[in-house]
Amino acid sequence: MFTSLAHKSVIVTGASKGIGKGIAKVFAAAGARVLVVARHLEAAEAAATELRAAGGTALAFAGDVTVKADMQAMAKAAVDHHGGLDVLCANAGIFPQVKLEDMSETEWDHVMDTNLKGAFLSVQACIPGLKASGQGRIILTSSITGPVTGFPGWAHYGATKAGQLGLMRSLCMELAKYRITVNAVSPGNIITEGIAALGPAYEASMAASVPLGGLGRVEDIGNAALFLATREAGYITGQTIIVDGGQTVAESTDALAQM
Ligand code: NAP
Fold first, then answer.
1. Mean pLDDT (whole number) for 83-100
2. Mutate to test the pocket of ligand 1, among 13, 16, 19, 209 (most ligand atoms within 8 A of CB)
3. Which of 102, 106, 75, 91 is nearest to 9 (CA)?
4. 70 φ, ψ to 5°?
5. Could you identify which of 134, 172, 174, 190 might form a hypothetical disulfide with 182, taking C-beta atoms 3.0 to 4.6 angstroms apart as the criterion?
6. Which residues carry out catalysis?
7. In terms of CATH architecture, what is 9-242?
């Protein structure tokens, strides 16, 4: 039995939809006080309202992970409204697809700024609150794309997701003396609005490449993040949990066909 996360103060960036909303839902259902962060306040408020309607404690906050002042205000909001800060789920991310030969510097910078600099700024702003917690937790949403696999059009995206793991490893050493752990959850293909936007052909081909069958649910990522946030996971730091239904394990399409 895991120690309850009831009343813990949790920030989830990129929580107005998709995986972030799934993470927020799982934490709210576990009794945590969740700050739902996204750039668009209306969407963040809609997600927070949904969590509250299900009996959870949640508040919306409009913030851009690429803006340092927004991240500092976000950390302060968690402390002011939820009595402290125990967990940061740095999840906000974008995945526009463009082949490297056609990629502009602006497109490269936008993905770097959101996914990698955004992780840096959100983590940095939360460190004082997490230190005060005495058992702070940082959980990054990375990906299988970059650290494990590649996909045409996602060179910049894959670089950020691998970069997040580099960030995690040095950071976990810097923060160990404060009993703050830093880990990552790496999703495979999860059913979200973002993935749906890539079209039914993409979804079908991804589903066919998963040994456990089908795409993952946002709650699958939320549950992994929840585990990493527990008191019992306090001796785990600098690690990645891949949640992909076995997608990265299959050696070839033939291996899948022989199942
Ligand atoms: P999504 O459905 O497109 O949702 C993205 C969320 O991030 C939204 O809440 C969006 O709200 C927010 N966001 C985007 N840019 C932001 C910024 N600059 N500042 C603050 N919030 C921002 O995406 P998703 O599929 O759930 O992906 C979430 C994370 O999981 C990403 O890091 C992604 O790389 C990772 N991931 C996803 C999959 C998958 O299968 N879906 C697989 C592997 C990894 P606003 O637009 O209002 O800001």
1. 98
2. 19
3. 75
4. -65, -40
5. 172
6. 157
7. 3-Layer(aba) Sandwich (3.40)
Assess whether pLDDT exceeds 90 at residue 161. Answer: yes
Rounded Cα distance, 237 and 183, in Å: 6
Q: Residues with Cβ within 6 A of ligand 1?
A: 13-20, 38-40, 43, 64-66, 91-95, 114, 118, 141, 143, 187, 189-190, 192-195
- Between CA 157 and CA 98 the distance in angstroms is 10
Give the closest residue (by CA) to ligand 1 atom 8: 14
The residue behind tokens 């919306």 is 60
pTM of the model: 0.98
Helix (H), strand (E) at residue 122? helix 118-133
Structure tokens at 183: 């880990």
| 42 alpha carbon – ligand 1 mean position (Å) | 16
Give the distance, in angstroms, between the CA of residue 51 and the centroid of all CA atoms in the same chain.
18
3-state secondary structure of 183: strand
Yes or no: say if 50 and 129 are a contact pair by the CB < 8 Å rule.
no
Pairing of strands 33-38, 57-62: parallel
Token pair, residue 222, equals: 């939320």
Tokens encoding 26: 């799982």
Residues 180-207 have a mean pLDDT of 90
Q: Which atom number of ligand 1 is nearest to the Cα of residue 160?
A: 34
User: Which tokens in the block code for residue 37?
Assistant: 């962060």
pLDDT at residue 37 tops 90: yes
